[in-house]
Design a protein that fits this description.
The chain has 280 residues and is α/β, with parallel strands linked by helices. 36% of the residues lie in helices and 19% in strands. The structure holds NADP nicotinamide-adenine-dinucleotide phosphate.
Length: 280
């Protein structure tokens, strides 16, 4: 029941009505009997500044920030944590009496998802794609101590730009490779951050097929619709272990929940709520 004491958190985006975050967070608040409620706020770019300042003035405890505001929101914050600064995007805000602090839990979410199977420290990783999600995943993997990073992207210049940015901020050298010259024999972790194979384009040919993979490989597709993408089916055919995109979505939410409440919510409650919302 919502009372005068209920704390408010939510998500700001444009559009926001398809967000899968409200059911996950509200399920965890109910499960843990925490007096919080999570609601969506549809905020167009022209209202972002007023929305963030108003949220602080109204005593909102925290917000998730989604497309298209993840970078624009930074100018309204008092403090930005290390990973979010490196990535250049914020997806979680925590409001305290005197300040608004921004975090990026997307990269943490991706790493935690993969770490259900394998620790990323000292591993050799290939990332496909060089967009917003790839940036978050790449920087967090490096913060978590991977040994080697290769980036393959349809537009090589964008991969080179990401590699340069990583080098200038973290002194870490990544390799930019063409899909045609990808060689995965010594790779430990392969991650797809492109939308290839995402609903309604399930039939799109995966960028990497089973003949190139091997049973020791951990393969992560961050697409969550469908749950088993063509790319993950190729991975299964090769005997590789797979991680689907719902895991990153769940763990980025779990991390935001922890930032707001100081409590680690049960991952199963998030997962169950997500699967129910996705109709699985
Ligand atoms: N599971 C999660 O929690 C989660 C979180 C965030 C995002 N995602 C998913 O991640 C995907 C990417 O999101 P984003 O924000 O990074 O998007 P983005 O910034 O637009 O980047 C898209 C990347 O995919 C590449 N790409 C697009 N279409 C391609 C194609 N047909 N063939 C080869 N490469 C292609 C682009 O290459 P170019 O540079 O050549 O354009 C670019 O590198 C989406 O499917 C999104 O749903 C999942």
């Amino acid at each position: 029941m919502i009372t005068g004491k209920t704390a408010l958190v939510g998500i700001v985006g444009d559009p926001v009505e398809h967000s899968l975050s409200p059911p996950m967070h509200n399920a965890a608040f109910q499960h843990l009997k925490l007096d919080y409620v999570y609601v969506p706020f549809h905020v167009p770019a022209k209202n972002l500044e007023n929305a963030i300042k108003g949220a602080k003035d109204m005593g909102i405890k925290g917000l998730n920030i989604t497309i298209p505001h993840k970078t624009a929101v930074i100018r309204y914050l008092d403090e930005v944590d290390q990973a979010a600064q490196l990535i250049g995007a914020v997806n979680t805000l925590k409001f305290t009496e005197d300040k608004i602090k921004g975090y990026n839990t997307d990269g943490v979410g991706a790493v935690k998802a993969i770490e259900e199977i394998i620790t990323v420290k000292d591993k050799k990783v290939v990332i496909m794609g060089a967009g917003g999600a790839a940036r978050a995943v790449a920087f967090q993997l490096i913060l978590n101590g991977i040994q080697k990073l290769s980036i393959a992207n349809r537009t090589p210049e964008k991969a080179e730009q990401l590699a340069r940015d990583i080098k200038s901020k973290l002194e870490f050298s990544s390799r930019v490779v063409n899909f045609s010259e990808l060689e995965l024999t010594s790779t430990d972790i392969l991650i797809n951050t492109t939308p290839v194979g995402m609903h309604p384009h399930e039939d799109q040919k995966p960028l990497v097929t089973s003949e190139m993979m091997h049973p020791e490989l951990v393969v992560n597709d961050i697409i969550y619709n469908p749950l088993r993408t063509g790319f993950l089916k190729e991975a299964e055919d090769s005997g590789a272990k797979t991680v689907n995109g719902t895991k990153m979505l769940v763990y980025q939410g779990v991390e935001a929940f922890r930032i707001w409440t100081g409590v680690n919510p049960p991952v199963e409650v998030f997962t169950e709520a997500l699967m129910e919302t996705l109709g699985k």
